[in-house]
């Protein structure tokens, strides 16, 4: 059993919930954050909207009062937007970046003093969409590319404090994420191609344990994306136009 504490945003469903269950099974104390009830056993559940400054500082003080320290902060809460750049309105774009990027960076800064004391880890849930453009998901790709660049530049900045930053880039995971996304469009069906969040959660735990910097999940997709991006971008664009119905 570990006496370490993990703070996870977005524990009421999907990947966040699976990570909360998994880390708890590994003996960690879990403080989970979401706006709707988590529906799982946690040591502390905080009902909060992480896009609000007052909620973020309340999360920090509730965690500090309950546990006194934090070893891992997992910035997981996020949402999608399925729209072309032409269709997406300004308020949707701002709301996407408010949650996926600004809230994530602010949560990290909120917990830095505690993470410095524990020489802990920041785990940021980015996406494989940060690695390659996807039409009708361009804003989401951009928000996750921001998360990846935040993570990669933060790591050397925090090295002197003994804090590691683990960037996680999942491919498609079956969580109902698309159904909850903003925008009118929906991704084309890809039956059987998305994995459940439980195995990803165990991979995140192992990557943390090994002190890894990056986790691509599934691992093969990292190379597939690099090859497509580097060698087959024209073919990829033509195919994207077809599957997203972007032809004339
Ligand atoms: N599913 C995928 O295919 C996939 C692939 C790559 C990366 N990701 C990333 O993985 C993360 C989790 O995705 P998921 O598929 O598990 O999504 P999900 O099932 O929709 O879960 C999102 C979680 O974020 C919470 N949340 C949303 N807005 C919030 C807010 N303002 N304040 C606090 N919590 C908030 C939601 O809880 P409440 O609504 O109760 O607040 C929910 O618990 C996201 O960052 C996503 O971009 C997902």
**Structural class designation:** alpha/beta
Structural domain count: 1
CATH class: Alpha Beta
Ligand list: NADP nicotinamide-adenine-dinucleotide phosphate
Oligomer: single chain
Rg from alpha-carbon coordinates:
18 Å
Find the CATH topology.
Rossmann fold
Number of strands: 7
Topology as a string of helices (H) and strands (E): EHEEHEHEHEHEHH
Concise overview:
It is built from 7 helices and 7 strands, in the order βαββαβαβαβαβαα. It has 248 residues and is of the alpha/beta class.
Give a description of the structure.
The chain has seven helices and seven strands. The protein has 248 residues and is of the alpha/beta class. It has a single domain, classed as 3-Layer(aba) Sandwich (Rossmann fold). Helix 1 crosses helix 5, helix 2 (53-67) packs parallel to helix 3 (90-118) and helix 3 (90-118) packs parallel to helix 4 (138-158). The N and C termini lie far apart (59 Å). 37% of the residues are buried. The mean pLDDT is 96.
